[in-house]
Design a protein that fits this description.
Layout lengths: L15 H4 L2 H14 L6 H14 L3 E5 L2 H11 L7 E5 L4 H8 L4 E5 L9 H7 L4 E5 L10 H11 L2 E5 L7 E2 L2 E2 L6 E5 L13 E5 L2 H10 L21 H11 L2 H19 L5 E2 L10 E2 L5 E5 L2 H10 L26 H6 L3 E4 L7 H16 L1
Helix pairs in contact: 2-9, 3-9, 4-5, 4-8, 10-13
Bound molecules: pyridoxal-5'-phosphate (PLP).
Length: about 375
């Protein structure tokens, strides 16, 4: 078969999220629909309990999406106007927007060679106004939480994790989303655990923070109906919760499949000098990575991308091509040379549950022929 005849490999296959288990999902919709169980219903409470148990956390609270989850988490931890929160500029703009909407100032810093927040850069950015560190557990990998935890303790800062991309990831055996005062997880369809729409959760081990989160996500309302503060409306739909609860049951297998695909990429591509791969799934005792994304650094990135596109293979340049501080209209004044250079080379290869081993081989064959002729 010539390359143009081969079926294309999209970067992400959205229809497969439904087609892969249509019958089970329709049964589930019917059940929820017939019960009229749409908002704050038992499927949601059960999913929250299952999610907390999976993570080894005390509390999980469904919210409308992870961006809202971060806003609520920051507010519950007391972050607000006049304060600064440090984050890695290699993240979704949502991370910084969440800080902005609490009234605090988002302070972007460099990432390290593994693309996650650099603790040395964090320390250098701390000022008397700093109140929190917001590490993004990027690409299914957890940051060095020992180093960040020591900084937080020494300088009296809170840690709020952006774990949107990291459900199931671990650092030294401990699950992402359980290290700080609170953390947000995303159930956007293309995330590790995807719903059929928007969704998120906030996770915490603190009963006091959980109480605040509950109020903040539901109009400032307490369990007894009393309005005790200004709040948002950001609840996880019960129908989405039912889908997520169903999908959480096979999540362990999903993670193992992602790690197998990452292993296969490494076997096929580790010899290429022009392509730097993310850390492998084996041999690093500190990190258990779950590969939300397979983020490479590619020499001649844009040409490689075009070449793969010509062979029907979809790739993605992260975050529309810029780190958060590089979006001029957001008003950042920082220069982050390491991150800026990195963004000239970053390229995500397809890695998701709709891909066969054969698909990965095809992607690798194409990359080999691009670099090796
Ligand atoms: C997806 C994502 C978000 C936002 O999640 P939503 O649920 O879409 O609000 C935030 N941060 C990171 C790192 C993400 O990948």
């Amino acid at each position: 078969m010539t390359p143009t005849e081969a079926p294309s490999i999209p970067f992400f296959n959205y229809p497969s999220l439904f087609a892969g288990e249509e019958a089970e999902l329709v049964t589930l919709f019917r059940d929820v629909g017939r019960r009229g169980a749409f908002i704050l219903q038992p499927d949601l409470a059960r999913f929250e309990a299952d999610l907390a148990a999976y993570l080894g956390a005390r509390h999980a609270l469904g919210v409308g999406n992870a961006t809202d989850g971060l806003i609520i988490a920051l507010r519950a931890a007391g972050i607000g106007a006049g304060q600064e929160v440090i984050f890695s500029s290699h993240t979704m703009v949502a991370t910084a927007a969440a800080i902005h909407f609490t009234g605090a100032t988002p302070v972007p810093v460099e990432c390290g060679t593994d693309h996650l927040i650099d603790p040395v850069a964090v320390e250098a950015a701390i000022t008397p106004r700093t109140r929190a560190i917001l590490p993004t557990q990027l690409n299914g990998r957890t940051a060095d939480m020992d180093a960040l935890g020591k900084l937080a303790q020494h300088f009296g800062l809170a840690i709020i994790e952006d774990a949107a991309q990291a459900l199931g990831s671990r650092f030294r055996g401990q699950a992402a989303a359980t290290f700080g005062a609170a953390a947000a997880i995303s159930f956007f369809p293309a995330k590790l655990l995807g719903s059929l729409g928007d969704g998120g959760a906030v996770v915490t081990n603190s009963a006091a923070i959980y109480g605040r989160l509950v109020e903040l996500h539901d109009h400032g309302r307490r369990a007894d109906g009393e309005i005790v503060s200004w709040g948002l409306n950001s609840r996880l739909d019960n129908l989405q919760a039912a889908i997520l609860r169903h999908r959480l049951r096979s999540f362990g297998a999903a993670i193992e499949r992602r790690r197998a695909l990452a292993r296969l990429y490494r076997e096929r591509l580790a010899g290429l000098e022009e392509l730097k791969l993310p850390p492998g799934p084996d041999g690093d005792r500190d990190h258990f990575d779950v590969y939300q994304n397979y983020e490479t650094e590619a020499v001649r990135r844009d040409l490689l991308r075009e070449f793969l596109k010509g062979r029907g293979i979809g790739t993605l340049v992260p975050w529309g091509g810029k780190a958060v501080h590089q979006w001029e209209r957001l008003g950042f004044e920082q220069r982050l040379p390491f991150t800026e250079r990195l963004f000239e080379r970053l390229l995500l290869l397809p890695l998701n549950l709709s891909l066969s081993d054969g698909d990965i081989h095809r992607v690798c064959d194409a990359i080999q022929s691009f670099y090796c002729g």
